[in-house]
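Recall that a protein's primary structure is simply its ordered list of amino acids. Everything else, from secondary elements to tertiary packing, is in principle encoded there. The following example makes that idea concrete.
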Amino acid sequence: MEQHHKIIIGSFSSIIVIFMIVSGVLIYTLFIRQDVQFNSLTADLKDTQSKITEISNNLIQTKADLTILNESIKSEMQQLKAQTSDDFSGIIEDAIKSVVTIRTDTSQGTGFIISNEGYLVTNAHVLVGGRKVNAITYGQEILSAKLIGYDGELDVALLKISGNYNSLKLANSNDVQIGEKVIAIGNPLGLQFSVSEGIVSAVKRPGLIDINAYIQTDAALNPGNSGGPLINKKGEVIGINNFKVGGGENLGFALESNKIKEAVNKISQTALQKDLV
């Protein structure tokens, strides 16, 4: 082989080797760059997914907060409406469904439901002399009522009817303020589910027994109101309507709710071995 042929072949081989080295370096660099980009993309995807999860959780929390806020606004609006416009209609609409007429074979009064299981309270004197007790719901359903027990001193009786019901909440009567607006729901003179409005005239009055546990109100109370609820602007029971002073105008008295709780839990512990309220 001639010398110039050898030179050409050698040069060509060198070029091929250099090309292969350069190509290898370029390919390696490309792979490294792609790997870096892939890792970066993976990190970005993880970060994006994390942000999506965070946004989703925030949306769920915001929805829950809005639900709570709407309920709070609704409650406050009802209270404000009751305070400013003397309109208890929204409160009455809910509360009256938890009030019942108590009817025996000798008398008639009122009661109200204190637990969803159908436990209700009334005045014990409403049941005196009766051999059979019925409760008539706001929907005019007549149900047999079972006597669980009674507290003769506080004039509170605990009854049970079958079914599930919305109940009224017993307020803390220590928070009752003189002058606050109240409503009484009952069956005066047989007029079922009548509502009268008034204010709290005084608290801690002595009653038929020598304890200062009665709320004085100017809301009209008549025979048939006994055992019904005295309700504040929050829709809570502050007392059980008990008696009125004969010969006086607008002198009604209700046993305060804390004493109702005391009587009910005393009765239920004896009969059911549990507290109801």
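The longest strand covers residues 194-206. The helical segments are 3-85, 89-95, 257-271.
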